[in-house]
Amino acid sequence: MSPVIDVHTHFVPNGWPELGPERPWLRAESEREAMIMVGSAEFRRIGAECWDAEARLAAMDAEGVAAQVVSPTPVFFSYDAPPAEAIGIARIFNDLALEVCAPDTGRLIPFCQVPLQDPDAACRELDRAVAAGHRGVEIGNHIGDSDLDAEGVVTFLQHAADHEVPVFVHPWDMPGSPRLDRWMARWLTGMPAETHLSIIAMILGGVFDKVPDSLRICFAHGGGSFAFWLGRLENAWHRRADLIATSQRPPSEYVSRFSVDSVVFDPVALRTLVDTLGASRVMLGSDYPYPLGERPVGQVVHRSEFLSESERAAILGGNAHRFLGL
């Protein structure tokens, strides 16, 4: 069996230079706890496992994880910042990510962030980060009102494909409202909807028709609600072709072009992913170390009796091995 690889985890460094009055900063609560602040607002309480490689490696050992992809926490993307500012922020966090992963670069696999609002700068920072030791890139699922089919994003994805750099797409900046600000509803409903919308944009916006098959791209949180509603999208593509048939082929013919992680928390949901996308397009993810993630890592994959042993092995590590180019 391939080693177990978790493709969806995040880090936060233990401090960083001043970024600006409305940018994230870290308020230390103790040596092992801190609060991410955005301006004067509390964003998220975190523990030392966000920056302490030894704590992270110990948790991996306890749960049988051989390697983790370590990606930025999306609040740091800064896509709303002027490009020059966003470039500086990306460089800061990309360099700090390498420091977090340095104690064991064989097991802690850093993914960088880029100033996606400036495609040329994003490509340059990707090249710089990869040359420095990053193995892939995490991007947000939108830039303001622009989705992943925006011309500049397509340019960046083409660059990633040409340089064989894997891309992990994470939802972020979900809109709020009185209805969505209760019960963490932005995370419980907004995140799945955001990811679903972005996969639709990749398909109907013609991105998969423009970029080569060499693009390795994975969507977080099981691809949101996409797998469950693919039938609705397919029906609409055929019945309202005047509005929706903007891709060269029907939506169902693109499911082999992307992967998703396994953070869906229930074997029934995992079966929907496998039945819709195929076991070769699902990779183990946990959203470690955040409280809405899966712990122990991989428990749903292990509990899913419908999986064959070869499918289980592929989801736990084999597919990630290929995705990461290991």
Task: Describe this entry's structure for a reader.
The chain has 326 residues and is of the alpha/beta class. It has one domain: Metal-dependent hydrolases (TIM Barrel, Alpha-Beta Barrel), CATH 3.20.20.140. 40% of the residues lie in helices and 16% in strands. The protein has 11 helices and 11 strands. The protein has helices spanning 53-63, 83-101, 119-132, 151-162, 185-204, 207-210, 226-239, 241-244, 267-277, 299-303, 309-323, and strands spanning 5-11, 24-28, 33-38, 41-47, 67-72, 108-112, 136-140, 167-170, 217-219, 259-261, 282-283. The strands form 2 sheets. The protein has an 8-stranded parallel sheet with strand order 1-5-6-7-8-9-10-11. Helix 2 (83-101) packs parallel to helix 3 and helix 3 runs parallel beside helix 4. The radius of gyration is 19 Å and the shape is globular. The chain starts with a strand and ends with a helix. This is 2-amino-3-carboxymuconate-6-semialdehyde decarboxylase.
